[in-house]
Amino acid sequence: xxxxxxxxxxxxxxxxxxxxxxxxxxxxxxxxxxxxxxxxxxxxxxxxxxxxxxxxxxxxxxxxxxxxxxxxxxxxxxxxxxxxxxxxxxxxxxxxxxxxxxxxxxxxxxxxxxxxxxxxxxxxxxxxxxxxxxxxxxxxxxxxxxxxxxxxxxxxxxxxxxxxxxxxxxxxxxxxxxxxxxxxxxxxxxxxxxxxxxxxxxxxxxxxxxxxxxxxxxxxxxxxx
Length: 225
Hints:
- This protein has 225 residues and is mainly α.
- It contains 11 helices and 2 strands.
- It has helices at residues 7-11, 14-23, 29-50, 58-62, 66-103, 107-135, 147-150, 157-165, 168-181, 190-212, 216-224; strands at 2-4, 25-27.
- Strands 1-2 form a two-stranded parallel sheet.
- Helix 3 (29-50) packs parallel to helix 6 (107-135) and helix 6 packs antiparallel against helix 9.
C-alpha cells in the first residue's frame, strides 16, 4: 500500500496515518522533512542576521573596532547555523531515539510523528522572533511559557529557565506524541506511555535549564584566551 504524505491531512487523521506508517510506504515524506529542515536553517540565519543573541558584540562596533566586529558577526553566524543543525538533529533524531527506547515502537515510525513536533517548534520560534522583531528587542524568558509570570514571585534562575522550557509548544508536542504513539500501544499501556512522554519533556527542560545558568560564553572565552 502506498500512502501519499500530506502534512495537515495526516496530522488530523492519526488513525489512518499510523496504519499507513505501519503497513505501507510513505511517499512525499522525505521532501517535506527536508523542507522543514531548510525552514529551520533559514529562521536561525534570519534571527542571527537581525542580531538576536549578539548584543554583546555591539560593544566592538561602538568602540569602532570594525574588523573585529564583522569577524565576530561572521563567526556568530557560523555558530548559529551549527546550533540550528544541532537543535534540529537532537529533536528529530535524538528525541525519536529516546522515545524508541522508552516504548519499543520502531524508530522509523516515531520519526514520522516527530516531524509534526519539529513544525510545532518551528512555529513557536517563528512567533517569538516575529514579536521580538516588531517590538525591537528580545527577552530572556519566552512569553509562551509561564516563566515571565513566575519571575514576579521567584528569582531562582535555574527554576525560571526550567519553566521557560515548558511552553505551549511543549504542551502541543505531548498531545501530538501521545495521540499518535498511543495507536501502537495496548490500551492498558497508554497511561504509562503518557507518563513516559511527560517525564521525558520535564527531564529535558531540567537539563536545558541547568545548562542555561552556566557561564558557557565566559568559559569558552577563557579557553580561547
